[in-house]
Amino acid sequence: MQFGPAAAHTGSYDWSTDAVKRAELAGASVIDRFDRLQVFERDGWVCYRCEQPTDPDVSPFDPTSPTVDHVVPLSKDGEHTLANVRCCCLGCNSSKQDHAA
User: Fold this and answer.
1) Distance between CA atoms of residues 42 and 93, nearest Å
2) Could you say which architecture CATH assigns to the domain 5-96?
3) Domain ranges, ordered by start, for the chain
């Protein structure tokens, strides 16, 4: 099974399974299964960092594309839960790296 962006463009890609696998590999103490669409809709498709709308219709590599960001990063003992994730544009998520929001 492939993970990450390369797998995202295949018909068999399952974001939730990929996210859970990455959370397990990162050693997250709490891992919930949820769909990224839940996060985007809950947050109104607005980036929580720059407060600009994200664009679901652009390439996943476009800076305005929506991503799911862990507010407390998994690398800093964050949990993979709905309470610890927010909609974040790719530009902000990339610049944040593994720093807490």
Assistant:
1) 18
2) Orthogonal Bundle (1.10)
3) 5-96
